[in-house]
Write a structure and sequence with these properties.
Elements lengths: L10 H13 L4 H11 L6 E6 L4 H13 L4 E5 L9 H4 L7 E5 L5 H11 L3 E5 L6 E2 L9 E5 L8 H6 L2 E4 L11 H16 L10 H16 L3 H10 L1 H6 L27
Parallel strand pairs: 1-2, 1-6, 2-3, 4-6, 4-7, 5-7
Length: 267
């Protein structure tokens, strides 16, 4: 099949056709929901969890990231292997981009170096040796929040490599929050503040397009392989019968997104 200019279609164009074909089998609710939620997603903040050993805690962290629209979760596995508790995560991981670091002796350094190279400021959370507070942290630069394990907190490597050590204000006898509670508290406050800033916190158009393809495949469930095979074998006929989807100019973001929107959010 040729593009509108007569040239051979690119891989991206073919992916758009496939995505539209798969989406034609989704419910109207899902077809409206998936693009709209992408306008709420962010990579301005990322969450890093280091050596969490309770599966329900790690899974609750993922669920909170999904709920607050934080797309990227980085899981460091120096000693403890991450295992998802499906009863707690409730499918959250399929909508997230989960990066796992376990192949090297020092997975923590590998993770934090990668985040720093991508422009993130590394912020460790701890009740000790802090130099900033959750309530006053300057969120204008992309930030990776690092949370340590349930027993020891973040490692010495994290403290050495961190740009800041953040304290969550507390007023009781307990020294710290449960790890999953700490993640939820931080994200609730920081995501709310981020949305008030005039910064490009939303995903780019290209990022939305890539994630939407992943999400449509997840939403297609067990029939995905059969549908993709049918599309590949009959693309010329099937693509002509399906309207392109979505039309981003018609996707309505959450009404609360009134500040800090990307200029290309409707393009």
């Amino acid at each position: 099949m040729k593009g509108s200019s007569g040239s051979a279609m690119s891989t991206a164009e073919i992916d758009c056709e496939l995505r539209a074909y798969l989406a034609s089998f989704l419910s109207d609710h899902k077809r409206e929901l998936l693009p709209r939620l992408l306008l709420n997603r962010t990579r301005h903040m990322s969450v890093v969890i280091e050596d969490i050993y309770q599966t329900h805690n790690a899974s609750a962290c993922l669920r909170s990231c999904d709920c607050f629209g934080v797309q990227d979760v980085h899981v460091i596995e120096n000693r403890n292997t991450f295992t998802e508790n499906r009863n707690v995560a409730l499918g959250a991981s399929q909508w997230l981009t989960v990066h796992r670091y376990s192949d090297r002796e020092d997975a923590t350094s590998e993770c934090l170096n990668a985040l720093r190279e991508s422009g993130h400021r590394i912020v460790m959370t701890s009740p000790h040796g802090t130099d900033c507070d959750l309530e006053t942290y300057d969120l204008r630069q992309p930030t990776a929040l690092v949370f340590g394990n349930e027993k020891d907190g973040a490692s010495d490597t994290v403290r050495r490599m961190a740009d800041h050590v953040m304290r969550i204000p507390m007023f009781g006898f307990s020294e710290s929050f449960n790890i999953s509670v700490a993640v939820a508290v931080c994200l609730h406050h920081l995501v709310w503040r981020m949305r008030q800033l005039q910064v490009d916190w939303q995903l780019t158009l290209r990022e939305r397009e890539v994630l939407l393809m992943d999400w449509v495949r997840c939403a297609s469930g067990k029939r995905r392989e059969a549908l993709e095979k049918k599309f590949t074998e009959n693309r010329d006929v099937l693509s002509a019968s399906v309207d392109m989807w979505p039309d981003w100019s018609q996707v309505q973001p959450d009404a609360r997104l009134v500040q800090g929107n990307r200029g290309d959010v409707r393009k």
